[in-house]
Amino acid sequence: SFGSGNEDGAFDINSNNGLIRVRDPTHLDYEQRSSIRLIVVARTEGHSPLFGYATVKVDLIDANDNSPRFTQVNYATVVWEGNSKGTFVAQVSATDDDSGENAAISYHIVDGNPDNAFAIDPPLSGIVKTNIVLDREIRDSYYLTIMASDQGQPQKTGTAMLRISVVDINDNKPTFPPHTNVSIVEDAEVGSLVTTVTANDVDTAPPLTYALMPSQGAAATDVSAFSIDRFTGKILLAQPLDFERQSSYSVQVRESEGRKRPPPFVLVLHFDAN
Ligand SMILES: [Ca+2]
Ligand SMILES: [Ca+2]
Ligand SMILES: [Ca+2]
Ligand SMILES: [Ca+2]
Q1: How many CA atoms lie within 13 Å of 67's alpha carbon, on the beta-carbon side?
Q2: One MF term from GO for this chain (predicted)?
Q3: Which is the CATH superfamily of the domain at 181-272?
Q4: How far, in Å, is the centroid of ligand 1 from the Cα of 38?
Q5: Is the pLDDT of residue 205 over 90?
Q6: Residue 53 has what pLDDT?
Q7: CA 26 to ligand 2 center in whole angstroms
Q8: Which secondary structure element, helix H or strand E, spans residue 76, and what is its range?
Q9: How far is the CA of 114 from the centre of ligand 2 (A)?
Q10: 265-272 sheet: strands from edge to edge
Q11: Given pLDDT bands bounded at 50, 70 and 90, which one contains residue 73?
Q12: What average pLDDT does the chain have?
């Protein structure tokens, strides 16, 4: 019989031949205790029995009965576009209650990674890095599914999500629509709308502003005949026109990011002589 160590009934012992067997495996958990010390009592039969004692130490072998668990189910981070490949994005981490190979965790991106935009490098680190140069104008967010796998048999896994928002930088130049000529009647009132000129910029910031400037080769005074709303690009007539005195004007519109980038948009105004 057992003297001690089997209070939970994990084992039984054959009282005739001393064979010890597992009776209830639910009490054998390496994570609770990795070895068990049983005191076995032997007793002679008869009126005045004699006793003998032995210690049996049972070492448990770890079974892979725990899955890796991430410290968070959902991770979120931001990363700037335009950084070189290999830029740090985030570090994810999982734990495993087993031991040895059964708790040796490697990480893999298993979904949500178009163009292999991200990589975990090295795989044991959980460090997520960029694997391409990110471009917010192509894709502004990613939603990665990351798996943690232990090395046990059978292998166990856990998953977490990592949301990555790509932050805009001002890496695109504005573009103007093709140059057009605009006509205006001679007797148009001062303040009337001549045309609206706006450039396109795929970045979100900064907001563009506009200014008028003289066209190359045209009279600088042409600019003073018009005014432009610097935010909307609306061009208004600023002084009365006289067809006999001047029959056409040429001005350029410059946007705020184009200072070093000629040529700006050219607007040629013709009077409608009617
Ligand atoms: Ca275990
Ligand atoms: Ca495990
Ligand atoms: Ca821009
Ligand atoms: Ca951008």
Answers
A1: 10
A2: calcium ion binding
A3: Cadherins (2.60.40.60)
A4: 21
A5: no
A6: 94
A7: 18
A8: strand 74-80
A9: 30
A10: 181-185, 265-272, 248-255, 210-214
A11: very high
A12: 91
CATH 3.20.20.70 fits 69-167, yes or no: no
* Structure confidence at residue 232 (pLDDT): 95
User: Distance from CA of residue 256 to its chain's centroid?
Assistant: 31
Q: Are 39 and 53 in contact (CB under 8 A)?
A: yes
Radius of gyration for the chain, computed over Cα atoms and rounded to the nearest angstrom: 40
Q: How many A from CA of 172 to the centre of ligand 3?
A: 4
* pLDDT mean over 197-215: 90
pLDDT number for residue 272: 66
What is the model's pLDDT at position 135?
97
Distance 168 CA to ligand 4 centre (A): 5
pLDDT score of 259:
59
Backbone φ/ψ region at 7: left (φ over 0), alpha (ψ -120 to 50), beta: alpha
Strand 265-272 with 181-185, pairing: parallel
User: Which amino acid type is present at position 58?
Assistant: V
Q: Which ligand is nearest to the CA of 31?
A: 1
- Closest ligand, as measured to the CA of 208: 3
Residue 15 has pLDDT above 60, yes or no: yes
Least confident of 65-74, 160-169, 202-211, 263-272: 263-272
Ligand 3 mean position, distance from CA 141 (Å): 19
Beta bridge partners of 249: 269
- The long-range contacts involving 113-119, CB below 8 angstroms and separated by at least 24 positions, are 113/142, 113/144, 114/139, 114/142, 117/142, 118/89, 118/142, 118/144, 118/164
Domain regions of the chain by residue span: 2-59, 69-167, 181-272
